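Service request form, structural biology core

Requester: graduate student, group of Dr. S.
Request type: structure prediction, single chain
Budget code: on file
Notes: please return the result as structure tokens.

Sequence provided:
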Amino acid sequence: MEIYNYSSAKSADADQREADDWLKKVEKLEKQYQDELYGSDDKKKAEAIKAIADEAGMPPRLAVSLMNRPVISLINYYYMNAKKAKPASSHTSSGSWTCKMCGTENDGNFCKVCGAKRP
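Core staff response, request fulfilled:
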């Protein structure tokens, strides 16, 4: 005998609606900032990510399943790193560097998280 939990189903539906609404807002903002997001100017890209994240707000719980979209991954990393202190220098003594956009420690020519070019 299967027991149906109505409150869990209702909560899951509400979570899905919240994620869908958030995604629509992000898609609209992504279109608005597409030149900055996908251009070659890292400073404009960082400003666009911050603007989208500030306007769209924190990703809802179900948006984690959407992380394969680059802009959503960038918003998530923005929130994860927003309160971290940035180092004074972007280069470390070991030859690695810290991305100015998302704060990730890297050793190649491009950030492994957001794709920003090494300074």
